[in-house]
Amino acid sequence: MDRNTLSRWLLIAGIVFLGFWLYPKFFGGPQNPKQPIPDERYVNGPNFSADPAIEKQDVTPIAAGSETCAIKGNRFDAELNSRGAALTHFYLRDAQYQDAGKQLDMVTSNWDAGGYAGVERWRPLRTLFRGEGDDQLAYDRFVWKLEKLGDTGCKFTYTDTDVSIEKTIKAGDRPFELNVETTIKNVAALAKKHTFSIEMFGFRSNAEIKSHFGRTSPFITDISCGHGKDVTRKNKDDFKEGWLKIDGADRWAAVSNYYFATALVPDKGGTPSCQLLAELYESPTSHNTTDDDASAVYHARLAYAQATLAPGAAATYSQIAYMGPKEREILKNAAGGDKGMGELINLGFFSPVAKVLVGFLVILKEHVTGNWGLSIILMTICVRLILFPLTWKSIKTTVAMRRLKPEMDEISKKFSDDMQARNLATMELYKKRGVNPFGGCLPQLVQMPVWFAMYTTLQTAVEMYHEKFLWFKDLSAPDQLIGPFVLPLLGQVPAIGILPFVLGAFMIVQQRIVPQQGMDPMQQKMMMYLLPGVFTVMMLFLPAALGIYMLTNSILGITQQLLVERFAPRDGGKKGEIEVKQVSGGKPALNKGKARV
Predict the structure, then answer these.
(1) Minimal CA–CA distance to 462: which of 372, 526, 398?
(2) 304 within 8 A of 159, measured Cβ to Cβ
């Protein structure tokens, strides 16, 4: 590759990058079509006021005097409200999940923007009882009566001339779990019908889920259903046609991101359907659903089949609500351990490999090192040793290529002005010496699933969340040893550290000592600085845990190459001779004479 060709490619790459960056700024990005979602219109009972701002019907202020109930559970503190008989807060009590002493709240749908704070219709564990053709209740929403069950539970009741409802929410024995049980009894003189549903909600603005250079936002949210042996996952862009319904949801309906999940698990009352939706809300300034200040409300609902109750009959529905971190050991036993809650962790295409890696990482931390940072280093060493047989084939190819170097230099000198002749002579040399120049590529390709799985594992492991190691304050976040910094075109990085630059320096060293076979000097120079430069910028955004892995792997690669240099120096081998003669038409041909090493 000559200098002019390289310059052209770099110019094209720069223009493409600028195009992607500038287009949304000048043209405002694509406009999403309106979702075909029916308006939610409710019949409100006496003294029940509609939600402010969000309601698409007559609005009055929220009624004063709603009661709250607190639950102290296993590793969490919850707060519920009689307005909706649902959650207003669910705080994780562990110090690991606190920011500046403030507990993490799993209820993200307390949306303060636009005057939507305290919206009843987005409170997790909210229940509805009326569907098409139902006559059990006259109202969709009504005032619940609250009875506090100490600090471990809350009982909500509602009674009128036709129905009696009792909804009890208690702390479960397992971490981060609530047990929810709702009994509806027909007290009318005639048979009545109802349709029961219960829902989880999440809220994220586009700015929160926006990816940065090299890293997907840990807050990017998916909605999932566990049914049978399958898991259906959807993201915000999958709901242009509105609600998605999946029958036979016998495992869960959940809203989750990289590190945390809120899930509803059916227990009693039959097998419900799972209904999912990401409801898009426009930017208040541009009325565009793709702008940073636009947002989405995520719905995960369990909807049970319509039921008919005879006079005096009752139906009971129960669920287990899990709201907490996606800790692997906790999810393994969540909801009794038979719902496969571990599949809430989405490790992507290489999930089977990633599960093995993270399991090994946990074993190292719990039984060997007691530290996540040291465990990452040790696991990287172990993975490198396990894959060494594949690496050894690459090393042998490198050594063989080095022994051919004197003859390849001679070929390059003889045919410096004739690329075709040079290539023919080189291929003949490979054939005579039994060397496959691509022999080291296949072992590298075989290792790719392991590297991708490691990348996914360390970028999504909640075990790294707020974990400290050396100077790193949080292994799940980028290194933040230095203060704020601004990158042109990429925006402001909250804080940067030394890890990206240390990694870049080690990668340059590795590029210098590892021969780039088959590349001309210009290509080698480009690879020596371009690749480390790209990874340095990426590490400004990637988790420190991933940086530790990459740095350890780079150091191991340098050590390996130094050993190769010791036992197979680059100037090894004997000079040989390759002869080329001209044939008719001016085409070069190889004289299959002697070629010695």
Answers:
(1) 372
(2) no
Burial class (CB in 10 A: 0-12, 13-18, 19+), 45: middle
How many Cβ atoms from other residues are within 10 Å of residue 573's Cβ? 19
pLDDT digits (tens, 9 = 90+) for 498-524: 777 888 888 778 777 765 554 555 656
Phi-psi region of 238 (alpha: psi -120 to 50; beta: other; left: phi over 0): alpha
Phi/psi region, residue 215 (left: phi>0; alpha: psi -120 to 50; beta: rest), is: beta
Query: pLDDT tens, 106-146?
Result: 998 765 544 455 678 889 999 999 988 999 999 998 989 99
| pLDDT tens, residue by residue, 374-417 | 988 998 888 888 877 767 766 666 666 666 666 766 676 777 67
Tokens of 402: 């080095």
CA distance 266 to 271: 7
Within 10 angstroms of residue 248's Cβ, the number of other Cβ atoms is 13
At 103, list the tokens.
């507990």
* SS3 category, 3: helix
Taking the C-alpha atoms of residue 264 and residue 256, their distance in angstroms, rounded to an integer, is: 12
Query: What would you report as the CA-atom Rg of the chain, rounded to the nearest whole angstrom?
Result: 31
What is the DSSP code (8-state) at residue 215?
A: B
The number of angstroms, rounded, from the C-alpha of 89 to the middle of its chain's C-alpha atoms is 24
SS (H, E, C) 380-431: HHHHHHHCHHHHHHHHHHHHHHHHCHHHHHHHHHHCCCCHHHHHHHHHHHHH
CB 175 within 8 A of CB 95: no
Strand 197-205 with 491-493, pairing: unpaired
- Listing DSSP states for 113-165 in one string gives GGG-TT-GGG-TTEEE---TT--S-S-SB-PPEEEEETTTEEEEEEE-SSEEE
pTM of the model: 0.76
Amino acid at position 131, single letter: G
Q: How far apart are CA 100 and CA 47, in angstroms?
A: 40
Predicted confidence at residue 167, as pLDDT, reads 97
- Spatial distance between the Cα atoms of 67 and 80, rounded to a whole number of angstroms: 8
For 405, phi then psi, to 5°, come to -60, -45
The DSSP bridge partners found for residue 457 are none
Mind giving me the DSSP string for 458-498? Answer: HHH-GGGTT--BTTBS-TTS---SS--EEETTTEEES---S
Residue 117 DSSP code = T
Pull the structure tokens for residue 330: 């906790």
Start-to-end C-alpha separation, the chain: 29
Q: Give the amino acid at 520.
A: D
| C-alpha 122: how far from chain center | 24
Determine how β-strand 491-493 pairs with β-strand 485-487.
antiparallel
What's the burial of 100, exposed, middle or buried (CB within 10 Å: 0-12/13-18/19+)? exposed
Rounded Cα distance, 123 and 126, in Å: 6
